[in-house]
C-alpha cells in the first residue's frame, strides 16, 4: 500500500517535531515535508505535492484562510487539514470557506488525528465537535430538544459515530451489517436535516440527543 504523503506546517519547531514523531508511528503515513511559515508551505507543497497538509492557522504571512485558498488553488489535489488551538468564528469560518477539508483542535487524541488524516485523504470532511457545533449554529437556529425523533438503534449508531467509529467498526460493535449502518445514517441525516456525519454529531449534541 502506498503511504499517504503528508506535509506539516507550524511555526513552532517543537510542535512540528512532535507531529512528525507521532505521525511517523503509522506505517501508512510518510512525512515528505514541513514548513514554518505560509510562504514556505506554498513552496514545499508545490514541490512535493502531498496528499494532505496539516497546518496551523496563525502563521507568518500568509496564514489562515489565505494560505488555505492559495494551497488549494496551486495544488488542487491536496487536502488541507487544520490543526490548531483556535476555534472562534473568526478562525473557523474563513478556513472552511477557503477549502479546508477538516478542522481539529490540538488537544484531539492521537487516534482521532490519525483517523482525520486518513479521512481527509479520502476527501471526507472531519470536524471537531466544537467546530461542527459552531458551523451548524451559523447556518441553522437551534431546534427544541427532542424534536428529531431518532429510534433507539439510530441513537446507538450516532453515539458510535460521535466516538469516531467508521461504518464498519459501528457495524461490528452492533452486530449488524455495514449496509444497515449506512441506512441508519441516511435516516439520521434526514431526521436531523443535515448533510453529513460531522453535522449530524454536532446537531445531536446541540439538541441534547447526545451528551
Automatic annotation (TrEMBL):
A biological process from GO: regulation of DNA-templated transcription
Modified residues (4-aspartylphosphate): 56
The HTH luxR-type domain, residue ranges: 143-208
PROSITE patterns: HTH_LUXR_2 (PS50043), RESPONSE_REGULATORY (PS50110)
Ranges for domain Response regulatory: 5-121
Keywords from the UniProt entry: DNA-binding, Phosphoprotein, Transcription, Transcription regulation
InterPro entries recorded: CheY-like_superfamily, NreC/VraR/RcsB-like_REC, Sig_transdc_resp-reg_C-effctor, Sig_transdc_resp-reg_receiver, Tscrpt_reg_LuxR_C, WalR-like
An example Gene Ontology molecular-function term: DNA binding
PANTHER family hit by this protein: TRANSCRIPTIONAL REGULATORY PROTEIN NARL-RELATED, TWO-COMPONENT RESPONSE REGULATOR
Listed name of the protein: Response regulator receiver protein
Organism: Saccharothrix espanaensis (strain ATCC 51144 / DSM 44229 / JCM 9112 / NBRC 15066 / NRRL 15764)
Amino acid at each position: 500500500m502506498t503511504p499517504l504523503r503528508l506535509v506539516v506546517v507550524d511555526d513552532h519547531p517543537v510542535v512540528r517535531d512532535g507531529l512528525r514523531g507521532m505521525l511517523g508511528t503509522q506505517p501508512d503515513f510518510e512525512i515528505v515535508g514541513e514548513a514554518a511559515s505560509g510562504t514556505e508551505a506554498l513552496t514545499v507543497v508545490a514541490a512535493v505535492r502531498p496528499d494532505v497538509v496539516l497546518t496551523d492557522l496563525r502563521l507568518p504571512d500568509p496564514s489562515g484562510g489565505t494560505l488555505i485558498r492559495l494551497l488549494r488553488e496551486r495544488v488542487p489535489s491536496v487536502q488541507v487539514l487544520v490543526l490548531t488551538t483556535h476555534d472562534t468564528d473568526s478562525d473557523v469560518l474563513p478556513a472552511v470557506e477557503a477549502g479546508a477539508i477538516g478542522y481539529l483542535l490540538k488537544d484531539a487524541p492521537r487516534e482521532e488525528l490519525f483517523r482525520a488524516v486518513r479521512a481527509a485523504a479520502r476527501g471526507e470532511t472531519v470536524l471537531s465537535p466544537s467546530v461542527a457545533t459552531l458551523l451548524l449554529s451559523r447556518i441553522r437556529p437551534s431546534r427544541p430538544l427532542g424534536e428529531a425523533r431518532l429510534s433507539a438503534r439510530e441513537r446507538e449508531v450516532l453515539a458510535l459515530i460521535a466516538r469516531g467509529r467508521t461504518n464498519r467498526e459501528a457495524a461490528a460493535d452492533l452486530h449488524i451489517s455495514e449496509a444497515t449502518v449506512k441506512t441508519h445514517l441516511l435516516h439520521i441525516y434526514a431526521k436531523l436535516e443535515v448533510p453529513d456525519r460531522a453535522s449530524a454529531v454536532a446537531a445531536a449534541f446541540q439538541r441534547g440527543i447526545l451528551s
